[in-house]
Amino acid sequence: MAAETIRHFCALTGVAGHPNAAYLTYLGLYSLQHRGQEAAGIVSADGEHSFIHKALGLVNDVFKPEKLSELHGDIAIGHTRYSTTGSPVLRNTQPIRVDYKGGTLSLAHNGNLTNTPKLRSQMEEDGSIFQTTMDSEIFLHLVARSHKPTLEEKIEEAVAQVDGAYSLLFLSEDTLIALRDPHGIRPLCLGEYEGAHIVASESCAFDIMGGRYVRDIEPGEMVVIRDGHLESRRFAESRQATPCVFEFVYFSRPDSRIFGEKVDKVRRKLGKYLAREHPVDADIVISVPDSSNTATLGYAQESGIRFELGLIRNHYVGRTFIQPGQERRDHDVRVKFNPVEGVLRDRRVIVVDDSIVRGTTSMKLIRMIRDAGAKEVHVRITCPPVAWPCFYGVDIPSRNELIAARMSAGEIGKHIGADTIGFLSLEGMLAAVEREGPMCHACYSGEYPIVPDSEISKESLEL
Ligand code: SF4
After folding, report:
1. Which stretches of the chain drop beneath a pLDDT of 70?
2. Which end is more exposed in the chain, N or C (fewer Cβ atoms within 10 Å of the end residue's Cβ)?
3. How many whole angstroms from 373 Cα to the centroid of ligand 1?
4. Rounded distance from Cα 72 to ligand 1 centre (Å)
5. Is the CB of residue 100 less than 8 Å from the CB of residue 144?
6. Topology agreement, domain 2-241 and domain 268-439
7. Is 204 a catalytic residue?
């Protein structure tokens, strides 16, 4: 199930115009830890110099008080990372900071580019030496090569050459620049705290600072914050935006606002619509905590079936996937979840979860629920089957690892040992979001809004 098998991408936070910029950025990163647990970093600046600290590990481990106190200045950007491209080593942590002819420039990126191989090999051909294996570094090379007079124009010229998903934060000695790609695939919003401008991937980062959400940064919009003044520029023609629907299903925190919508509201509706599409006679409905809690409440409310806490999650193990690699996955279910026998014994149980990827975790979880005495186990999933990989910054595996690429819904149910199974339809999922205009749903439908370079996609699409 998704909580074990899909890795998050990255989180961004930035603060401009506050004496505690680095500390506030740290708080923002802390609340966005769910979007990346491999590494964290902050760069701050005081108008003349910039200061950086980054390391592998969780935000709280990376930033001790003495490290934070060295990050001077009233402007800062921060990043937490899970590696969707590049391996998890120190040189692949962000923000990336470079010195170039225009001064010092730092970058934090959430998303994945889809034309990286061509761009990178072209640049290497021209003599560029890359410091990391991350696609994000390409932005800095393109900015450094630009002959445009201002930083914002250099960035505009750079992003015009890349395709894919990118929410970006740039920091010079005195300027914070935030932008979202023209498709607006990854979220990025703007807030305010004590007169300072703040930006973050999700609005829960503003809450922890004590700030407030102002609005989303629009797809194709660049926000330039300098000397307390905010300027909005449009760097790309207005295109049809296609934000990631999976953010609502799983990635974002329910207390966040993304793409202008409250995640909690959408997630409850996902559960509600699922109950309408796939009703079943049962005694109790349980969630796979924590990611499907909110949707399960929606399912229980709509069906009138009692919500119970049938699985307890151990919160102190971290995300099972913090250590990349297959070998650790076998024990992840028992390490993370324990069934409550008194709740499950002799009951007909509906289990609501947010997705099935490989199916292996679901199988173990269902066995565990049955071993605890459940009479029947009915699995309900708050989105359609995930049958395609993501090329926009989410680590959904190749097609040949996705159970839904090889089996029908009914076959998946049998395979994982469920009595019945039901997936929310694509229409139902999109109706729950209630958004005017399209969204990216490529991992369910195979309809990619940005066609990836075949060098990137070829192997992942093979069955
Ligand atoms: S392919 Fe799926 S996970 Fe990736 S951006 Fe689209 S909806 Fe989101």
Report:
1. 1-8, 83-88, 238, 317-331
2. C
3. 37
4. 37
5. yes
6. no
7. no
Residue-wise burial string across 38-73, b where 16 or more C-beta atoms lie within 10 A, e elsewhere: bbbbbbbbeeeebbbbbebebbeebbeeeebeebeb
Atom of ligand 1 nearest to the CA of 386: 2
> Which class for 2: exposed (0-12), middle (13-18), buried (19 or more C-beta within 10 A)?
buried
pTM: 0.93
- Do the Cβ atoms of 260 and 216 come closer than 8 Å? yes
- Ligand 1 pocket member 244 (CB < 6 A): yes
**How many angstroms separate the alpha carbon of residue 244 from the centre of ligand 1?**
5
Q: Which residue puts its alpha carbon closest to atom 8 of ligand 1?
A: 244
Compute, in angstroms, the gap from residue 245 CA to the centroid of ligand 1. Answer: 7
The single-letter code of the amino acid at 37 is: Q
The residue ranges of every structural domain in the chain are: 2-241, 268-439
- Note the pLDDT of residue 6: 64
Q: Compute the mean pLDDT over every residue in the chain, rounded to the nearest whole number.
A: 92
pLDDT for 225-269, tens place per residue?
999 999 999 998 767 899 999 999 999 999 999 999 999 999 999
Find out whether the beta carbon of 441 lies less than 6 Å from any atom of ligand 1: yes
Cα of 230 vs centre of ligand 1, distance in Å, is 31
Ligand 1 atom having least distance to the Cα of 442: 1
178 neighbors 168 (Cβ within 8 angstroms): yes
CB half-sphere exposure, 16, CA atoms < 13 A: 25
- Distance in angstroms (rounded) separating the CA atoms of residues 188 and 200: 6
Q: Which of 242, 441, 450, 456 to mutate to test the pocket of ligand 1 (most atoms within 8 A of CB)?
A: 441
Q: Give me the amino acid identity at 245.
A: V
Q: Which CATH architecture has domain 268-439?
A: 3-Layer(aba) Sandwich (3.40)
Ligand 1 in reach of 443 Cβ (< 6 A): yes
List the catalytic residue out of 10, 244, 383, 440: 10
CA angle at residue 435 from 276 to 440, to 5 degrees? 95
**Could you give the residue ranges of the DSSP H alpha helices within 246-382?**
246, 263-277, 293-303, 332-336, 341-344, 360-371
Superfamily of domain 2-241: Aminohydrolase, N-terminal nucleophile (Ntn) domain (3.60.20.10)
